[in-house]
Amino acid sequence: MATSERRHTPILTTKAVVIVVGIDFSRTSAHLLQTARELALRASRTELHVVHAMPVQRISPGLVDALPRASRSISAEVQSAHEKLDALCAPIVAGLDALVTTHVRAGRAVDEIPRLAAEVSADVILVEAHGRTGLRRLFHHSLAADLARNAPCSVLTVRPKAATLAEVATTPG
Known about the structure:
alpha/beta; Rossmann fold
C-alpha cells in the first residue's frame, strides 16, 4: 500500500508575538494575566504590554489656575497605578522569558487600549469578560464588544472558569 507523506517545515521568524493586556484591577485581573502568561509560553518570543487606562475628568475653566497643584496630584495617581500594576504583574510574569512592559494611560480604556495596540503593532488584545447579565448588562457598556469593533488586531475576551467565578464572587473586595 502506497502512502503519501507531507512534511511541513515550520517557518522560523524573529518577530515576537505582541500581546496587549487591558487591566482594570478587578478581582479577575490576575486570571487575565495568567492567561496572557500561558499564551506567552507558547511562543518562542513574546512581548507583553500590560495597560491600565485611567479616566480623565474634564477640567472646568475655573480650575485651570489650579493645574500646577493638580498635576502633582495626578502624577501621584499615575505613580500609584504604576506601582499597583507592577505589583499585580510581578508574581505572574516571574521567570517568564518575555519582554514585559507596563503602561498607565490617561483616557478611556476603549480609546487607549487600541491606541497602544497600534503603537506596538500588537497581534492580539486580551481583556476580561465580566459576564454581566440582565439589567447589569443593559446598563454597563461592554469594553470587549467596543474593542472587537475598533481594535487594530484580534481581541480575545477571557473569563474565569465556573469554579473560579464562584471563588471570586465570595472573595471580599
